[in-house]
Model the fold of this input.
Amino acid sequence: MHLHVRRLVAKGYKVGIVGKTETALMRAANDNVREGLFKRELTEVYTKSTLVGEDFDFKVGLDDLDRDDISSFLMCVFEVAMENAVRIGVLAVSPLSGDIVYDYFVDLEKREQLEMRFAQIKPVEVLVPKSYLTDETYQFIEAITTRCALR
Done:
């Protein structure tokens, strides 16, 4: 199963795993429910930046998948508008390595400093709280995130 999850994630999909959350012992203890299907719920969600854990051994290989392509930074961007510029905050986390990168800076209309942070960090996913961004910054992020998922 995890081989297929890795392949789907490598193609850009978000993959959810549904697991059984009720056991026969739990059901036996409950007098109201004795028959029918066991309860199932979404137990795991994998994306390009969150495909980590002991189930995903990258040494056992798929030639079409690259470790760096699968596990990299998940980045969040927020800003505070000022008169002729904006203060932008960036937080990036790599769940696989535990690396954390953060920065807070003043940027001008063309968002050159933000572009430099994207070029250095190279996130595979970007979390964008649209209510905390100006339209200009949101459109800029949309334009430069062709290779990563924008959420």
Summary: The first strand starts at residue 15 and ends at 20. The helical segments are 2-10, 24-29, 67-70, 112-121, 135-144. The radius of gyration is 20 Å. Strands lie at 15-20, 40-46, 74-81, 86-93, 100-107, 125-127, 149-150.
